[in-house]
Design a protein that fits this description.
- The protein has 186 residues and is of the alpha+beta class.
- It is 35% helix and 30% strand.
- It has a single domain (3-184), classed as Aminopeptidase (3-Layer(aba) Sandwich).
- Strands 1-2-3-6-7-9-8 form a 7-stranded mixed beta sheet. A two-stranded antiparallel sheet has the order 4-5.
- Strand 2 (59-63) and strand 3 form a beta hairpin.
- The protein is globular and about 45 Å long.
């Protein structure tokens, strides 16, 4: 096993990321697997990921030539590209962190993180976030995301790398209770 943390450089890597995403969507796995291993909810497409990668390099983990994990960067400028995330960005416009509105902070949303089965529990999650910090902390002050409150594995992992819960809300458009978490790069 030769795991490296890097950014997307090829169309093949984008396609591998999309394949990994499909395997881990909540609609494509059992409830037991979702509860035990975590899950992802948002579906991206090739065009959107290509544009996101042009705006900000997208972080991936590879074992040789195979993408085995990813941690997407969703700049605020993409707030309308995925309708299910519009409510999150609208909420972030009004939310404060450390006495400042998040919208007045250099921030990005963690677009989604996923580690392939067989690679979980081996430091890939932490390595993806280490790469985020090394690649992006010079451009951004804050990384913010929302995690389904029932996704206990993801919440625990995010807390472990340094995220803190700053808000909770229920999204009526996508019926789910969400924990909003922030990672301060300063």
């Amino acid at each position: 096993m030769n795991i490296t943390f890097t950014t997307i450089k090829t169309d093949q890597e984008i396609q591998q990321l999309l394949d990994l995403q499909q395997k881990n969507l909540t609609k494509n796995i059992s409830e037991d697997v979702a509860n035990d291993q975590g899950f992802v909810t948002v579906v991206h497409n090739f065009d959107l990921l290509s544009r996101m990668n042009q705006a900000v390099p997208q972080i991936i983990a590879k074992d040789g030539d195979k993408v085995i994990g990813y941690a997407l960067v969703m700049p605020e400028s993409f707030r309308f590209d995925i309708p299910v995330l519009t409510a999150m960005f609208t909420m972030l416009d009004e939310l404060e962190y450390e006495g400042r509105l998040i919208k007045n902070t250099a921030y990005y949303a963690m677009g989604q993180i996923c580690v392939a089965e067989g690679y979980r529990g081996q430091g890939v999650f932490d390595g993806l976030y280490d790469k985020h910090k090394s690649e992006l902390s010079n451009r951004f002050e804050l990384c913010v995301t929302e995690i389904a409150k029932r996704n206990l594995r993801s919440l625990a992992a995010h807390k472990r790398v340094g995220f803190e819960i700053i808000h909770e809300y229920f999204d009526v458009n996508y019926p789910e209770l969400w924990e909003v978490v922030a990672w301060d790069f300063s």
